[in-house]
Amino acid sequence: MSKRLLLTGLLLLACVTAAGPAAAQPAPTRESGTRNVEVDPIRCWWRTSAGAVHVGEQFDLTLTCAVLESDAVSVVVDESRLGNAVVQMAPFEVVSGSHPPDQHEGIRRFFQYEYRIRLINPDAVGQDVRIPDMGLHYRVNSKVAGNTSVQGRDLMYYLPPLVIRVTSLVPDGATDIRDASGASFAAIDTLNFRAGLFNIVGMALFAFAGLVVLVVLIRVARGARKWTPSEQRELSPYAVLGVATRELSAVRSDKAAGWSDELVDRALAATRIAAAGALGRSISQRTAAGDVSIGEGQLIARGPRRGTRRIISAPVTAHDLSRALARLSPADSRRSTIEALREALQTLAAARYGREARNDGALDEALDAASRAASSVRGQHMFPRSLFRKWSAAAAPVESRA
Predict the structure, then answer these.
(1) What angle is formed at CA 94 by the lines to CA 88 and CA 99, rounded to 5 degrees?
(2) Are 163 and 46 in contact (CB under 8 A)?
(3) What domains does the chain contain, in order, with CATH numbers?
(4) Fewer CB within 10 Å: N-end or C-end of the chain?
(5) Are 248 and 271 in contact (CB under 8 A)?
(6) 337 by DSSP, 3-state: which?
(7) Which residues contact 243 (CB under 8 A, 6 or more apart)?
(8) Percent helix, strand, coil in the chain (nearest 5)?
């Protein structure tokens, strides 16, 4: 009886001792908010341009693989044995191959190898020839706390089997008589480049169409104006300033033999016209008869109609330019041009009407300054600047008389 009680007590003591540590451990808690999804670290597939070939016929074989690549896990594949120069596909012969750039989509990186192969073994006629089994070595690298990388062990992935029928028939295991057409990475890049090129051409054509519409609207606006006889039409400021610019260039060429009163008068008339354009004043224009001779301070310009001429002039003095400068702010962009025209007018007027001896060096400098200023003023009246000036200011009189 005592032995039985002793055995019963020892058994109870063993049960209590075994249950103690288990009861002391906290109950496992389930982590909320995170969910792990099992995905394949690597997956590969074949694509062929033909399901059945003849002996010696070349066809395309494409290998595409998708590997896992994210911030936490990356799969590193040994691709050293996939190049067209080293890959072994006996009894098939690799004629050529290529390796397009890798593509990324989400947590997957896609790489592709394209091979141009053929079979030259006549004993394979009427048989299903299997693409040699190939294995890819890869490692799964992961990152832990502290941005530390942990390299996984070497693993092996075997490519899926593929059978080619060496007759006019398809392989026995085929589900269709036609392979699915696979788009290579190179073809995708080509299509993207072509789409971008078409976008650029489309935008250029759209801009050209807008320009054509603008020109048509301007033509319509001009056609809506009241008709004016050709002898009453005025030359545009841009055309008149072009006459002054060309006259200054002609004076520069003619002064090689020395300055004369006629050259000074021509330069002075052209500078006054440029000064009128800089101040925004109207330039006198009147129709010239066939045998009329121009007077002092005037220039001859071709009229708006062939065979007609216009006499143009501008009564602008250096004093007018000084008063205009007094009204301009120091930061005005027109200030330097008006100052150059004022200095040129003073020098040319002193040489033409003054009593002192003519200074050819000063005249040369004045002519150069006037030429640069006239070109600048003419540029300000070039289209579409002239159109903006008309929108922002009141229109000039339709006709001015001398």
Answers:
(1) 90
(2) no
(3) 42-182 (2.60.40), 232-392 (no CATH)
(4) N
(5) yes
(6) helix
(7) 270, 273, 299, 301, 312
(8) 40, 20, 40
Instruction: Tell me the backbone φ, ψ of residue 21, rounded to 5 degrees.
Output: -60, -35
In whole angstroms, give the CA distance from residue 105 to residue 41.
15
283 Cβ partners below 8 Å, 6+ apart? 237, 240, 273, 276, 277, 312, 313, 314, 400
CA count, 13 A, side-chain hemisphere, 347: 20
Give me the residues paired with residue 47 across strands: 62
User: Would you give the DSSP letter of residue 36?
Assistant: -
Closest by Cα among 90, 168, 166 to 131: 90
What gap in Å lies between CA 64 and CA 189, rounded to an integer?
A: 16
Angle between helices 335-353 and 360-380 (to 10 degrees): 140
Look up residue 401 and give its two tokens.
Answer: 């008389």
Alpha-carbon dihedral angle through residues 261, 262, 268, 271, given to the nearest 10 degrees: -140
Cβ count near 230 (within 10 Å):
11
The DSSP element (H or E) to which 217 belongs, if any, is: helix 185-223
Q: Which residues of the chain have pLDDT under 50?
A: 1-3, 5-7, 16, 18-34, 169-170, 394-402
pTM: 0.42
Query: Residues of 244-259 as b/e, b for ≥16 C-beta within 10 angstroms?
Result: bbebbeebbeebeeeb
User: Residue for token digits 């600048």?
Assistant: 376
Q: Could you tell me which residues come within 8 angstroms of residue 391 by beta carbon, excluding any fewer than 6 positions away? A: none
Place of tokens 């003073």: 346
Token pair of 157 as six digits: 């992935």
Contacts of 74 (CB under 8 A, 6+ apart): 68, 140, 141, 142
- Tens digits of residue pLDDT in 291-331: 666 777 788 888 777 767 888 889 898 899 999 999 988 88
What is residue 196's three-state secondary structure?
helix
| Distance of alpha carbon 286 from alpha carbon 292, whole angstroms | 12
Beta-strand ranges (E) seen in 53-193 are 59-68, 73-77, 92-98, 103-105, 108-119, 128-130, 135-144, 148-150, 155-158, 163-165
Q: In the beta sheet, which residues pair with residue 198?
A: none
